[in-house]
Amino acid sequence: MRLLGHPLIEGRTGQPCQPRGQKSWALLARVALAERPLTRGELAAELFGEANDPLGALRWCLADLRRCCGDPELLRGDPVRLTVGSLWLDVWALQDGTLPAADIGGELLAGVEPRDCPAFGMWLMLARGRCAARSQEELHQVALRLLAAGDAEAAASLAGRAAAQDVLEAPEVAPMSSSRFSVYPSTRTSVSVTVAVVPRLAAPVSAMPPAGGRIRLPF
């Protein structure tokens, strides 16, 4: 189940299965990334407050998600929760560091902007910032590992993707800076690589080299 980039639920047969509305996607992300389990009343008020029957609208979206996931026991109970192991989510893999670098960098719920739920809109803005910061951190770490292995070209590609992340400058998200490294791949040609850095998460470099010099990576 992918929530980074344009969201997608893949069925057991490998065929994509799409929920029937943006609020189903919003509900799934809200439950998956909640810091604590949310009650049905809280979810209904945040996402369906404008509906004639907010709890009924919530039940409809929960049933929609169960249909797409092919699991009639998913998202039951009150409060509503997702347990680890009940399904695979790319946002969870991003958080625990197991998401492949090729899958990192998509905006959370790209293209999903549900109407008439300002509280959810504020939550989504902050959640996107946190996901972007985590993506930068992961891409930065992979780029450093590639630099240490001598693969400057791949490191430069990841560094560019990290720098492209639009990080929300909020108290929960550290500002981004950049550091320029000169490295020597196997061809002995000097390559300059700019690596995006989240300062409070980045591993320190012991000393910056003189122009054109080598650096000692913190590994």
Characterise this structure:
There is one protein chain. With about 220 residues, this protein is mainly alpha-helical. It has a domain at about 20-115. Helix content is about 40%, strand content about 5%. The chain has helices at about 20-30, 40-50, 55-70, 90-95, 120-150, 150-165, and strands at about 175-185, 190-195. It has a two-stranded antiparallel ribbon. It is elongated.
Task: Briefly summarize what is shown.
It is built from six helices and two strands, in the order ααααααββ. By secondary structure, it is mainly alpha-helical.
Multimeric state: single chain
If you compute it from the alpha carbons, what radius of gyration comes out, rounded to the nearest whole angstrom?
Answer: 21 Å
H/E element sequence: HHHHHHEE
The pLDDT mean sits at 80
- Give the amount of beta strand, in percent: 5-15%
Strand order of the largest sheet: 1-2
Instruction: Report the span from N to C terminus.
Output: 34 Å
- What is the number of strand segments? 2
> Count of helices?
6
User: Main sheet, how many strands, which sense, barrel?
Assistant: 2 strands, antiparallel
- Give helix % range: 25-40%
Low-confidence stretches: 168-219
